Amino acid sequence: MSRIRWYRSATAAALVLSAVVFGSALPARATTATAAAPTGVVAGRPATVTKATLEEIQAIAARGNGKLLTLNAGAGTSAVITCVLTISPPFGGGSPGSSVQVDSALQCTDWMDFLSLFVQLRRDVSLVGSSTVALPVSYTLYGSARETSCQYGIYWGVATAFMRRSGYTPPSAYLHVNSVPLPVGCGSTPPPPPPPPTGAITVTNPGSQSSYYRDPAYLQMKATGGSGTYNWSASGLPTGMSINPSTGLITGPATTIGTYSVTVTAVGGVGLSGYTSFTWSVRHEPCPRC
Fold it and tell me: Known Gene3D superfamilies for this protein (predicted)?
């Protein structure tokens, strides 16, 4: 397993998933990591990748910025898989027109059936850059989000990861983490640092959704906490559908058959976000001319 060691002015925040399997241990398949590590240079010092031990990952959680989760698959001999989701502080924006970027990494001590990572870069509460990466049968995933030309404001990042491996109960899990904020002046005096976020945002889970191919769909997302006014974003929506960033209304006819893992994020202030995840199935109408 690899660890991203960011040479930034602040420590990367992290959440940790520890998955314990009881019974026959699932085979440890050798896999090839096909996703490239995030790149970027700050003060002439590039981001580097080094090996991390299970003890190092557990130490991240022990410092108070981690979260542990145990998954149980029966009785008997135990085997442990530990995953860590990290996000760097934003970096860049030191001169007019320069870019601002945030990097994130999801790393596990053993392979997963499927991994995905949704990375957002926010300026104040507005979404200014995002990316989604996914790999089957892998244990490492990297992603970055960037605004190519910086603007005056406070930048911060949000990362949400999805992990799935068969034989676990529940069979899948999510991790969600915010970065520390970075005031950026783009060559001029940056704004003052924001106050620490208070409270929490809870996004209401709408449950599993389904719709027919090319039929109009409408789903109003809701949240509580924070300021009560939210900026919305979503990843994994069925092809052809989108979310209104101001109202949280998901609309659009789905144009591709399939089952989708959707993650919706609500932002209510700098460093303050909440999310929920659910599935959305798109199928053919059984009798379109009835």
Answer: Immunoglobulins
pLDDT tens-digit series, residues 172-221? 889 898 998 999 999 999 999 998 888 899 999 999 999 999 999 999 99
Query: SS3 of 54, please?
Result: helix
Domains and CATH numbers, the chain: 2-184 (2.60.40.10), 202-283 (2.60.40.10)
Count of beta carbons in the 10 Å neighbourhood of residue 3: 18
Contacts of 53 (CB under 8 A, 6+ apart): none
Q: Cα 26 to the chain's mean position, in Å?
A: 26
| 140: Cα within 13 Å, side-chain hemisphere | 18
Residues 6+ apart with CB under 8 A from 189: none
Looking only at the bridges linking them, the beta strands covering 242-243 and 249-251 are: antiparallel
Higher pLDDT, 283 or 27: 283
Q: Is the CB of residue 72 less than 8 Å from the CB of residue 113?
A: no
Give tens-digit pLDDT for 231-285.
Answer: 999 999 999 999 999 999 999 999 999 999 999 999 999 999 999 999 999 999 8
Contact 266/273 with Cβ under 8 angstroms?
yes
Rg of the chain's alpha carbons, rounded to an integer? 20
In contact, 167 and 24? CB cutoff 8 Å: no
Cis omega (within 30 of 0) on the bond before 197?
no
